TrEMBL record:
Residues 147-343 form the ATP-grasp domain. GO terms for cellular component: mitochondrion. Residues 626-655 are annotated as: Disordered. Keywords: ATP-binding, Biotin, Ligase, Nucleotide-binding. This is Propionyl-CoA carboxylase subunit alpha. SMART domains: Biotin_carb_C. It comes from Oncorhynchus mykiss. One of its GO terms (molecular function) is propionyl-CoA carboxylase activity. PANTHER family: CARBOXYLASE:PYRUVATE/ACETYL-COA/PROPIONYL-COA CARBOXYLASE, METHYLCROTONOYL-COA CARBOXYLASE SUBUNIT ALPHA, MITOCHONDRIAL-RELATED. Residues 631-642 have a biased composition (Pro residues). CDD domains: biotinyl_domain. Residues 41-474 form the Biotin carboxylation domain. Gene3D superfamilies: 2.40.50.100, 3.40.50.20, ATP-grasp fold, A domain, ATP-grasp fold, B domain. Its cofactor is biotin.
Length: 655
């Protein structure tokens, strides 16, 4: 039976691991690629990027005996990628347009360090043809395709015309009245600027916001309209081409799990494609690469409908975020291949040499609150951070460490968590274990959402589309819901742990040991139901695996009695009345204000637009109201913990 003494026991289920580590791009990667020390490429490469991708490129450079140069903003002076590099140069203050997009400063860094080549990573200047031109003008090698290919594929309109000419299937573009359209930036990528419009008002709004994002992120505010394909899969083909006319397709990546047009979970290969469709998509991707004389690693993205009809979406002329899963199933180091190709070496492989060995899954771990729109950015300092690298067949690509700051200036990605297995089931099992053993404290993160996705029956069956999240969670992600059975199991575990701890303390002085010992199976009755509880107690670990009715169920973390006592005195937070306050759900900068003092606004009307982490979001009125005059603003209520208030907005709260 459960007694009042159990109230002193505080159990918290955690997804955690307690092995300390300096967290950089994983070196536990098995490549079939041979790093030939006699094959001379470059002496020094500058990586024009930051974070995990900069660390990832540096790993391969070190294997190839190439010195590396990091560039950084002033707030990134102590970043992991700076510590990993042989040299580092500050290129400006925190805002990206003054640092990582500052071509003048980066060109100066190249000259100062004598770098022979530049690897751009992804994002920032990776698909900027002007940057590639400036490098060529100074005889510095751009590790990527030439400017012609960057321009041709970077322009969404021209790329579709070229794809059509190369006999690649394309989505119908704007050629008259259609029921639904998609507004897309003509430059850039990463899901930015894509908006669906179902009516005239949404079309106007989509044009305005997408063009602003385009100008801010890529310096090109042109837009493309195309027919919206509802409920498709998003499947992409990795291509690799050299300067000698050789081109390969390295199989596909399934990227359908998305939120706000940005990928969350990817896998390779896809559960959906049969060999014939895979081959057809691969061959069309190679046709397009050859049509633009492509040379480097690149990705051709397709939308695939339920009948396996596929349509060209875009070509990314850079290394993709999700490239590790292709490396896992092919054994190729794509960064090494890019460096070799940039130096002028031919590809070492033929198409028949490219295997599909096993299955790989990638989860993008973000500093985001998954309970708000499937992930609104979170900022803060990582007070505790440990990656699950002790587990087999787990790869973690990151560029942070314990104590790192997640700021408003850059993408909120923490890491890319990759698991590999001989089968999909094995890879999924390892992903579940890896997520359960990942420790992140100090910022809100999306691991609960990632775990929910990869254990969802529909995902496990492979029945997914780009609408998976809104279809399965129409009211938004609410987290794992504890059932009555789950509550009984946790209460039973608390009882068993309490009694076990009491018995253990009686013999602790004479039997002190860190060895794992098995609890005796305890029979605990809760609400008339008997539950059998057993498990392992290990003084060296705060995580205790628990077996319920002879089936392994979960791990729990036991907090001290002091924590339990103090928690009883914690005040309950009273929800704040924000019905008359305009509050940003995230920190950011105001880029547009749509109202003025005295305006009467309707429910749902846009009040202002904020920009945070390279994305623009409209803040709308929660109800019909009148904008308060500037000279009589009410005193702002104190914000709750971790709830950023938009302090520098020039328009006062709604009245």
């Amino acid at each position: 039976m459960i007694t009042s003494t159990l109230r002193r026991v505080l159990l918290v289920a955690k997804h955690a691991s307690f092995q300390s580590r300096c967290c950089v791009a994983s070196s536990r990667v098995q490549y079939s690629t041979v790093y030939d020390s006699n094959e001379k490429t470059f002496d020094k490469i500058l990586i024009a990027n930051r974070g995990e991708i900069a660390c990832r490129v540096m790993k391969t450079c070190k294997k190839m005996g190439i010195k590396t140069v990091a560039v950084h903003s002033d707030v990134d002076a102590s970043a992991v990628h700076v510590k990993m590099a042989d040299e580092a140069v500050c290129v400006g203050p925190a805002p990206t347009n003054k640092s990582y997009l500052n071509m003048d400063a980066i060109m100066d860094a190249i000259r100062k360090t004598g770098s022979q080549a530049v690897h751009p990573g992804y994002g920032f200047l990776s698909e900027n043809k002007e940057f590639a031109k400036r490098l060529a003008a100074e005889d510095v090698v751009f590790i990527g395709p030439d400017t012609h290919a960057i321009h041709a594929m970077g322009d969404k309109i021209e790329s579709k015309l070229l794809a059509k000419a190369a006999n690649v299937n394309v989505i119908p573009g704007f050629d008259g009245v259609v029921e639904a359209t998609r507004v897309i930036l003509c430059s850039g990528g990463g899901g930015k600027g894509m908006r669906i419009a179902w009516n005239d008002d949404e079309t106007r709004e989509g044009f305005r916001l997408s063009s602003q994002e385009a100008a801010s992120s890529f310096g090109d505010d042109r837009l493309l309209i195309e027919k919206f394909v509802d409920n498709p899969r998003h499947i992409e083909i990795q291509v690799l081409a050299d300067k000698h006319g050789n081109a390969l397709w390295l199989n596909e990546r399934e990227c359908s799990i998305q939120r706000r047009n940005q990928k969350v979970v990817e896998e390779a290969p896809s559960t959906f494609l049969d060999p014939e469709t895979r081959r057809a998509m691969g061959e069309q991707a190679v046709q397009l690469a050859k049509a633009v004389h492509y040379s480097s690693a690149g990705t051709v993205e397709f939308l695939v409908d339920s009948n396996k009809n596929f349509y060209f979406l875009e070509m990314n002329t850079r290394l993709q975020v999700e490239h590790p899963i292709t490396e896992c199933i092919t054994g190729l180091d794509l960064v090494q291949q890019m460096i070799r190709v940039a130096k002028g070496f031919p590809l070492l492989h033929k198409q028949e040499d490219i295997p599909i060995n096993g299955w790989a899954i990638e989860s993008r771990v973000y500093a985001e609150d998954p309970y708000k729109s499937f992930g609104l950015p979170s900022i803060g300092r990582l007070s505790q951070y440990q990656e699950p690298i002790n587990l087999p067949k787990v790869r973690v690509d990151s560029g942070i460490q314990e104590g790192s700051d997640i700021s408003i200036y850059y993408d909120p990605m923490i890491s890319k968590l990759v698991t590999y297995g001989a089968t999909r089931a094995e890879a999924l099992q390892r992903m579940e274990a890896a997520l359960d053993n990942y420790v992140i404290r100090g910022v809100t993160h999306n691991i609960p959402l990632l775990r929910e996705i990869i254990t969802h029956p529909r995902f496990i069956s492979g029945d997914i589309t780009t609408n998976f999240l809104p279809e399965e969670y129409p009211e938004g992600f609410k987290g794992h819901q504890l059932t009555s059975e789950g509550r009984r199991e946790l209460v039973s575990t608390a009882a068993a742990l309490y009694v076990s701890a009491q018995l253990r303390s009686q013999r602790f002085l004479v039997e002190c040991s860190n060895e794992m010992t098995l609890w005796p199976p305890w029979q605990v009755e809760v609400d008339g139901v008997t539950v059998e509880v057993s498990g392992e107690w290990n003084l060296a670990s705060a995580l205790l695996p628990v077996t319920i009715n002879r089936t392994p169920r979960f791990k729990v973390r036991v907090l001290s009695q002091l924590v339990s006592t103090l928690s009883a005195h914690m005040p309950e937070k009273v929800p704040e009345d924000t019905s008359s306050i305009l509050r940003s759900p995230m920190p950011g900068s105001v880029v547009a204000v749509s109202v003025k003092p005295g305006d009467v606004v309707a429910e749902g009307q846009e009040i202002c637009v904020i920009e945070a982490m390279k994305m623009q979001n409209s803040l709308i009125a929660a109800k019909a109201a009148k904008v308060r005059p500037m000279d009589t603003p009410p005193p702002p209520p104190p914000p709750p913990l971790h709830q950023p208030t938009l302090q520098h907005i020039t328009t006062p709260p709604l009245h």
